[in-house]
Design goal:
The complex is a heterodimer of chains A (about 110) and B (about 110). By secondary structure, chain A is mainly β. Chain A is built from no helices and eleven strands. In chain A, the strands form two sheets. In chain A, strands 2, 4, 5, 6, 9, 10 and 11 form a seven-stranded mixed sheet that branches. Chain A has a four-stranded antiparallel sheet with strand order 1-3-8-7, with no helix packed on it. Chain A is globular and about 35 Å long. The termini of chain A are far apart. Chain B has about 110 residues and is an all-beta fold. In chain B, about 0% of the residues lie in helices and about 60% in strands. Chain B is built from no helices and eleven strands. In chain B, the strands form two sheets. In chain B, strands 2, 4, 5, 9, 10 and 11 form a six-stranded mixed sheet that branches. In chain B, strands 1-3-8-7-6 form a five-stranded antiparallel sheet, with no helix packed on it. In chain B, a hairpin with an 8-residue loop joins strand 9 and strand 10. The chains are: A mainly beta (about 110), B mainly beta (about 110).
């Protein structure tokens, strides 16, 4: 079975631009969470979606938004990019509301 | 606010030299403590979940233990393939199930 897949794997943007990152969870998983990992630090929680509804939000500005589709895939959108948004963006899925998270390999975003 | 601190930041071992990684945590109420392994350029890979003080779990050369304030990841007779960043995370009882608070990680290097 395929694991969590994310696209693209790498992305270069300039300040002020908008970016959309995509995530496909493991087949049968209904929960998707997004994390930001800055180099040298642990991942930081951004959002969780379960059954297409937002169930949790971390301390990120409103420039960050996400949604989950009927097939449980998800998008993370970031507007008005800043240099500090450069990071590895990780998507994780779980089979239920109280199950361990399986992470994808991430999207490496560089903002110039 | 939930906090996780890992020590040491980096650890260099010779093959076969056993050691321990520490994870100290502060959380309003602990639902679970998680250990993940992360290789360069990849997402975190799940290792263990611990739920209550006194609990222990083992997998190959790794053993995780939990007290009310900290967790240890013991590595017995490590091999070069154990080299990775080891991440500790907590999940609080009053947050969404997809939200983990991570420490900054311990970078483990095992020399042959």
């Amino acid at each position: 079975d395929a694991g969590v897949t994310q696209s693209p794997t790498h992305l270069i943007k300039t300040r002020g631009q908008h970016v959309t990152l995509r995530c496909s969870p493991i087949s049968g998983h209904k929960s998707v969470s997004w994390y930001q990992q800055v180099l040298g630090q642990g991942p930081q929680f951004i959002f969780q979606y379960y059954e297409k509804e937002e169930r949790g939000r971390g301390n990120f500005p409103d420039r960050f938004s996400a949604r989950q589709f009927p097939n449980y895939s998800s998008e993370l959108n970031v507007n008005a990019l800043l240099l500090g948004d450069s990071a590895l963006y990780l998507c994780a899925s779980s089979g239920g509301y109280n199950e361990k998270l399986f992470f994808g390999s991430g999207t490496q975003l560089s903002v110039l | 606010e939930d906090q996780v601190t890992q020590s040491p930041e980096a650890l260099r071992l010779q093959e076969g030299e056993s050691s321990s990684l520490n994870c100290s945590y502060t959380v309003s109420g602990l639902r679970g403590l998680f250990w993940y392994r992360q290789d360069p350029g990849k997402g975190p890979e799940f290792l263990f979940t611990l739920y209550s003080a006194g609990e222990e779990k083992e997998k190959e050369r790794l053993k995780a233990t939990l007290t009310k304030k900290e967790s240890f990841l013991h590595i017995t007779a490590p091999k070069p393939e154990d080299s990775a960043t080891y991440l500790c995370a907590v999940q609080a009882v009053d947050t969404s199930y997809g939200k983990l608070t991570f420490g900054q990680g311990t970078i483990l290097t095992v020399h042959p």
